[in-house]
Amino acid sequence: MQQFETGILYVVGTPIGNRGDCTPRALETLGSVAAIVAEDTRHVQRLLADTPVRGDRVSLNAHNEEDRIPRLLERLSGGEDLALVSDAGVPAISDPGGRLVAAAHGAGIPVRAVPGPSAVTAALSVAGFAANRFAFEGFLPTKGEARRSRLREIARDPRTVVLFESPRRIAGLLDDLEAACGSEREAVVTRELTKRFETNRRGPLRELAGHFTGHDEEQRGEFTVCVAGAPEEQPGDGSATVEADKVLEALLAELSPSRAAKVAARITGRPKNALYQRAMELDGKE
Description:
This protein is α/β, with parallel strands linked by helices. The chain folds into 3 domains: about 110 residues, Tetrapyrrole methylase, N-terminal domain (Cobalt-precorrin-4 Transmethylase, domain 1); about 110 residues, Tetrapyrrole methylase, C-terminal domain (Methyltransferase, Cobalt-precorrin-4 Transmethylase, Domain 2), CATH 3.30.950.10; about 50 residues. About 45% of the residues lie in helices and about 15% in strands. The strands form 2 sheets. It has a 5-stranded parallel sheet, with helices on both faces. α6 links the parallel β6 and β7. The termini are far apart.
């Protein structure tokens, strides 16, 4: 490894399920550093069961970051190499570790990537949606206006959107996405990527929401959801949009967004799903 006056912080990708996906370089790095920094050190122990390791293991999570990061920077400044890992995939992406990486940069400590598996790119690769531009949303807020606001943003985003979700909330997420994006918006739900029971289910949000609501046995494991981007408005839609907004604003004074969208669709001839999305946006501003 290249020598620096200080140590190097290696950000190491680890398998998201299948242990065979751990790269030789990742194993070599983890076996040679002075310490491995992990959210759960027990996970590292299982991953490296057959790999000689000379360094110690240090836990780093949301509860101890403030106390641990200064000590880790001292070790790095003293010339020790450290490796940062997450429980699965690439560290600092919807996982602890981002603050340590930022602090290392701030202290002038070299940070090096040791790439590995990622649920985000793995899901995109099997989704079959445009991925030249995409947005990663991670876990959405669980309730309230913060969640509704993010759903409205996803509904109008022309890029493919990638989300994470827990087993107990996957059915609710799909219901909310259907309400925000429309029943016919295409999506892919990936479950247990790279593991024995991996499933990749693609279809309209209407079908996906109905399927997972009716199949409790599939509400297990780790989920990554890809939502197709919103269709771009056709030229000439500007005046129609202004007309629809005026109708919706009048209806929203008396009706819920869903009822307002239904009535506005009869008046304007525009798709009810698109009008519901717009009604949610207008209602959120009031």
